[in-house]
């Protein structure tokens, strides 16, 4: 934390909260909230508290100018709704009248409300109303909120979230993080608000809720942001009724010790291995053997002596050597006993394929196996999963079909169906994969364990995850921040709409957080978010194909002017920057294209050009240092057929690479069906290329840039 | 127009505008603007005009309460920026001080500004600030704007547009058309604003700019919208410097007379036909012959007697019979002379493949051929196009390869590259096409002519258009409104981002309008907008496959819970409604699925189920009247392999159809590569199905719904 917390008066806050707690209340009154704010240096307007009309009149006179008057009642949280707020009151008679009206309104709103009195406050105005708050997210814990305040926050929901605690830089980033950020910078000649003062309030609030985690909600709304400071006009503080449950956490070394043995095992046991075709225990055995796994495979089956040519054991205790991972293919009811035996054998990891646990409502059985695992020191993957693939070890510990195209992409899915889509897409596009892992019910091992492993795995260079919830958002963020500095992480968060979230809830029993919280915090942790299954798969496939860009200057070279326009649209949508071409470079491009071609950016080489024009302009685009990425728009003509374009592009890219020049190159191919083969060829040669779409190649480039920026390469 | 325009005082407005015009000004002063508003019954606050501090003090006293004071100067349009506005002024001294300060600020802002005086106005407050305005769009002409007012309109740009004139219903729809619409309905217990009063102001303004087209811009900003009325606090009126150019328009009968002969010709002439392979004039001849066109084909070539077995003519005048369309395959410079001859021969349509006109900067040549065409009564398609396909006539009048998969989809593109992508995608997906038409420079025939033709074409049941601009937005809207009641129209508007629009401008020389204007007005005309090339192509392919839904109740039936969550996300994003399943229907579904499957919606039948479970639940979904559309989520398992799922689904859908039950059914297939074949099979059997994506099938369903709603089926 950047802030010097020594100046905070923690005792005052502790006293206030203790009193509220002692009185069995969950929310603070306005004067209590004000004391808390003052103790942490959060500026509030001049004010006082009146229990009679005379006192209110006197207070208003002391404050001077116009005042705001507000009901003070532990029973009324929404004061405006209750008619308990009067603004711009001035003059003795008006103050007196307002006092009585507020009391009358409050009584009408809730006749048994306990009324403490009326707060009389300096009328703040002339600034921009913003909201600064903190909330306790079920996934991420303490989260800081910033946005436009007043009524607009509820209607426009133009707010941004960050994980608490926030430092000064993060606080400042929140001011830029809302859609209406421009309003804070001053529009129509208005002075900009005091950004440092706002960031200061954000940091103080962040420190406050970090120091006092029992504060579950904290709203400063509105805060008046002025050119010369900021004051919180209203404060609302709610305490949590129950203690938060601390999730179980393992150290990095503990995680890696288990994960290394699970992913690179010397010996695998299959609990419930079977010789009978069609059984899951048979499919797992077959896939391990057919997949080419070179370690020991121990089938465990009380009724067999041998399965698929391997000696079978009655139980895992009888296995002669060490076992690194036990893959379970027995019905749910047999899992607890077998898991105890696995624990006794000191197997570090159990992969639980069976369903019939929390996902079918059988929470007791899931809790039972989790307890056994904790007792015996076994980490669990699943239950309710298809298993996992790890191609560096030729390991297909799954009942699905084997997969053998090796590469650097590690994929995980919470759902089995999505896992199957990952497998099919990978096979269809020949995507090089290091791992495909099912997480299912996530009773124990989850995304942060996998990130910790993949982060240090030399065989993995990108991770793509489908998830519906996070059991421990903070652990995920910590792991993600670490890995995303080196390797991209793509996340498809399902259940991101209200209806989607409802379905997630019925599916996994997990409470999905508000999507905007996920969105902002995933970004904060360096994750590239995909908003659809198709995008997740294409990003996973395409990001590792592209080199990391060295700058923001993107140039479009296109044979089809029409593609150029659509590619430009896609550039803007993906938050990329079309380079302003300097005059000398413009002249250099012009030398290659017809006089009526459009130079500038897009560079429209026009449709009837021969291969040499594509080649010369692409080479120039690669060789000029000021250009950092290329987007190609190909137009199928007789003069330059699709495969000719593909081969020349691949060759020019390879020649540049031989000279040490590596830039992301993506391509959109418009033409007859031959462009499909040409796109495949280009993809295999390091150019992310698609037929019949201008948006997909640019979306992949945009995803690469999002990662490169968050990882500090740009 | 709903409004009784008799009450309007047109003479007052005409006098004010005449005076402004006579003085060589383009903008009205505030008092002039106020007179114009009053003449059309647009409510404005109490006010007066002061040319001295004393007069201002007297006026303020007469108005009473707080006043707003504003500079009046023909040279200062942005009064706030100039420091020319003081709000909440009350009391003689304050009014006097404000008067002098405003004059001083104005002089400092622009020292040569002519200052008329200061407007003293009743201070409006307590309402919501909105903007109501009119602007003259280069594409659509008079357009009405509504949005949140004040500073927010500039930052949030939360505005909505409609083509003027607007009726009461359209005016009311504008209030719901902004993101912050909720604020007008009253939030946090606030009273709703007077929607009728706001709509009334919108209509009056619409009438005003319709009656006086020389008004190019009209801002009422802010309008204070209160629970009991609305008043325009500030008015800004700008007149256009030049007369608008009225576009050339043809009647429906004239358009159809030409288009019918062009699309269903008895005889086609090819100007510049060639026997030499590789020449465009040779490709066109070959494609006409190889495509199977049964009418007469007349090659025109001064140097040949016969081309590809057809008698050639020196010029079109020598052709013995009538010619319905002349396809040009000669260099640009030869077009004028040949076009004159085509005109003399009374050929109604010329298809101009050649480039070298406006797109290369040769505007003169394009103007020349347009003039010749007008003179001789020939309508032009192009120039700078690939030609056109019309499959009902086996007509491939293009230099690209023939296409013969007949069907109801008509596609058009402004760009040749996009046309080639259309062709390739069509061939790859075996999309049944009626027409593919290149529009290129749109020197004459454009989208509205084609819409008029396709609207009445029995061989076309959906139109998909790629466009970068519209030459005549009003004609397009008129044609679109007519056709979209019967047939869906999908539009991909390129150049929709600022950068994209810049590229469009360099490509076609066309000024693309602001995208939000396009967005709102395309919606107003019943068009389904696609936001990417991929979406346009998938909508074109999928919409005609699906029957028109009879209601909004969408049900998801899924084998993969994970797909169910993502499909639910997609439902929300595509503005579809997941049906609330009534208890009896819930019980009926439950009877088919395992006890731990999730009923509700999505209906999660769980992953391990046999074909009979898919079959029973899909049949129930089709046969229950309360359900209007089905989204299927398939999960590849050994128990129900992909083709088994595809065949059973196709069979159940066909059985329902035989009973007269037709509902849209779309499917997402998660699994290994066999799901690709299964998806193709389903698509061919009327189920819009995709592998590895949950978003695409729902997007197509959403597009179908958007059309069905706008056409009044829902």
UniProtKB/TrEMBL annotation, chains A, B:
Domain of life: Bacteria
Keyword Metal-binding: no
InterPro entries registered for this protein in UniProt: ATP_grasp_subdomain_1 (IPR013815), CoA-bd (IPR003781), Ligase_CoA_dom (IPR043938), NAD(P)-bd_dom_sf (IPR036291), Succ_CoA_lig_flav_dom (IPR032875), Succinyl-CoA_synth-like (IPR016102)
Keyword terms, alphabetized: Ligase
Keyword Chloroplast: no
A molecular function GO annotation: ligase activity
Residue stretches making up the CoA-binding domain: 262-357
Identification of the protein by name: Acetate--CoA ligase family protein
Organism: Pseudonocardia aurantiaca
Classification lineage: Bacteria, Bacillati, Actinomycetota, Actinomycetes, Pseudonocardiales
